[in-house]
Amino acid sequence: MTGGSLGLRTGSYGSLQSIKNVIAGGGRLLHSKPVVSARKNPIIMLSGSREKERSLPSVWYRCLGRRKVSMLFLVALSLLVFVLGSFLVNKETESRSPTVDQRIGTMSMTHYLNGAHSEASRILGRKDQHKDKKYSAANSVNGGDGNKFQVSDSKGANHPCMNFTFPPPPPPYLRRIGPRPCPVCYLPVDQAIASMPSSPSESPVLHNLTYVHDENPIKTEPHGGSDFGGYPSLKQREDLFDIKESMTVHCGFVKGSKPGHQTGFDFDESDLEELQQFHEIIVASAIFGNYDVIQQPMNISEEAKKNVPFYMFIDKETEAYMKNKSVLDDSKKVGLWRIVVIHNVPYMDARRNGKVPKLLLHRIFPNVRYSLWIDGKLQLVVDPYQVLERFLWRHNANFAISRHYRRFDVFVEAEANKAAGKYDNSSIDAQVDFYKKEGLTPYSEAKLPITSDVPEGCVLIKEHIPITNLFTCLWFNEVDRFTSRDQLSFGMVRDKIMAKVDWHINMFLDCERRNFVIQAYHRDLLEHMPPPVVIRRPPALPNTNVRGRNQGKRTPRRGRDKRSGSRRHRRATAGNRDGTFF
């Protein structure tokens, strides 16, 4: 039934509005004189209304045509669906009660825009706010204008990024699904180099750090560990979190006096000499098990190319593949990367082998001030000087890592790892249960201004001083003892150290990390992907109107010409019979 018929209904049970001066006759509508008689026959009224209903669509079709009416109907329907969908989304967003996840996510962005100290004070109402002053000073942004950044007091009020404005988030119905990069204010390279501290940062409490050397490590407890890590006992593990001025710790490479020389994870003699050289900054990465495709850095300044070496650690399997593909030759250089081949890898798991250079760069490079670690699947697209200035020097920090873009709770992260098959489920459960016995609790607002227990650990930005070296040593020991999923152990080690000394980690937003690195696919995924489809447009046909016969004439309308179509058809058929093709 059409809209016109619906408009005639006024009562319940299908009662019809009275129609005056219209009766049914001979299959068409006829006008008649007013009848002052009694009640009309309902059958006659019903048939008359139906005839009128049938006439309304026909009028529309005659005036506009069927296609135009159909298009108008589809446009109106699409507009209605869009309006209703937007209304429902906004209503659901407004009516939904804020969960811990939403409040922490909102707080994280507020921490990014309005400052950690002011937001923590507002939410928690703490009386002992003086405990968070240094953390706030190192990670705060302008508290007056919510979209303007504030740099450390030591940088002065004339910092070029002082008035950098973070754009507001788009409305809910325009947001894209998944993590995305966000704008980051970097200094020009020359200014970033000039802002490098002239002296090392002060290491709180711990000033002298040495490492355990044991030629014959023995496993004495049922928990994990390895010959490479030295099997520290649980008591030794607990004692290492009692920060002192001088400490000796297990930190891999326990079998030799020099890391990389008969310790497992061994280097060539020529590489050993180079790794001992002094550098202000290095960039490092690794590919084990031929798991990734080497990514060349982009947008690197001439100063960085000259003064910042790029080291790529690979195992024998990856080396064989690269030589077979003619990617690697005797120069040991692939683009900007200086290739370092590892012999006698300590683990069967390629991912666990990758944790050695990731967490123990200070042992491999004993004479380096700063290091920037990126996973092998990442491509660096911002100059390393600019990255260090933005995430370390600008905040007076000595260790920086991005938080996970979605998860901030270790228990949630553990379940996500199990669901994705990242590691054996029983081993993940055993590690989490062990941490629960040590006091691990789900993340809550009580930990503010710390906004996450789960990092996105594919990028580490570090100054090599005793306290940061101790942190990565103890973090590596957890990876060596339990699972290789370093996201599970990060928060536990960080909190134990922060409970003893006044030290913090700059956990920046994941969207900022995605601004300076681009993530590629692992090799196994790339090899199973179908090749990209290349659509080639055919070349434009030459203009056959050479003599200008059709100049000034109107282009004939599409469709068959009734007068001459049959004649053209006969000519084309005759041409085809003679073997002529058009």
UniProtKB/TrEMBL annotation:
Domain TOD1/MUCI70 glycosyltransferase-like: 209-522
Species name: Hibiscus syriacus (Rose of Sharon)
Protein name: Kinase superfamily protein
Record's compositionally biased regions (Basic residues): 550-572
Keywords: Kinase, Membrane, Transferase, Transmembrane, Transmembrane helix
Molecular function GO labels: kinase activity
Region Disordered, annotated ranges: 536-582
Transmembrane segments: 69-89
Keyword Disulfide bond recorded: no
Keyword Chaperone applies: no
Record InterPro entries: TOD1_MUCI70, TOD1_MUCI70_glycTrfase_dom
Pfam short name (any one): TOD1_MUCI70
